[in-house]
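Milestone M4 deliverable, item 7.
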Amino acid sequence: MKSTATAIAFVILLFAIISCNLAGKLINTGQDMPRASELWSVVPRMDGLSPSDVEPPLAIKLIMRTVLNNLWRLNKEGEDKTPVNGDWITFTHNGPPADIKNFYTSERMTSFGNWEASKESTCIDGKDKGIDGVLCVFQKIADKKQIGLAIVAGQDEKTKQTTVFYLRLEQDAESASANSSPAVPPVKKGPVTKLNGTAPYGIEKRPMPIGTSLDQLLPKQVGPYSRVALERSQQRGTTATSIEIDGNGVYATYRSLDREVFVELSIASSPEYAQSSWDVVVGDANEGIYPTDPRYGSFGTEPSYLKVVNKDGAFFAWTRGGYFLSAAAKGGEASLDAFMEAFPY
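Output delivered:
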């Protein structure tokens, strides 16, 4: 699933573009941020960038500031939403905005500037929403500062030139921690314990997945469902041929007549690391609510699972050792049941 931060970011992006005047009334932008003299040393510079004197439009500043504040969850409900200190810099690029998404991967940012790693892409391509633009967000703690970075790229329809805005925000890590208001309660930490009872679909009785073979982990045929797509999570539309441990996940799409199930798979180096995904998944799929009814959820156990059925369809996520899987069926619980009852793990 997409991370909560990414979902928030894209909603704000759409909101600001469609209704930037209203956004300007609702959000206090605080003092003007200065222009940086050069790209910061912790951010790699992509080939083909040319310095630009263009200043980010107000809507872009609102997007980036609000995205990063939501990403950090710096403010409690009802508190002042004035963002933290920051600066910005602008470049132009002759290629499409997609170049930005392809360059600023989690792997590159983690190895180059020690930004926090993410199993999924932290960049969103707006083409699916009719917007020729890209938004990327990153964060880290360094020198007792919590630092956020937003990169927004948009292409001019006439000149086909892409403008790339970089904005960096920071504040004291202690202050950020004191002001934070977690969206979801933390999942149980510590050693993973054996499940006491039964899980939906009897997954606790199924074989443990092994290895990294995608055809074995995500079979081409699952009951009545045929696998019609296998994609890299960080680059949709690109066929996945392998999966790395503690790396990016893989997406698989299964179809049976008019029914479709969307599956995600990632592999962690330990069961505890696999369990660390629950805060994001529960926040995304179930509004941050950890169900206590064993029919719908168990966490910190082997296996762990979450089942959600609502107006948007049916969703089931589960762990087996270091393997984290999820299956989403817009067709509802019957569609999900038919898939899960035939899935091997």
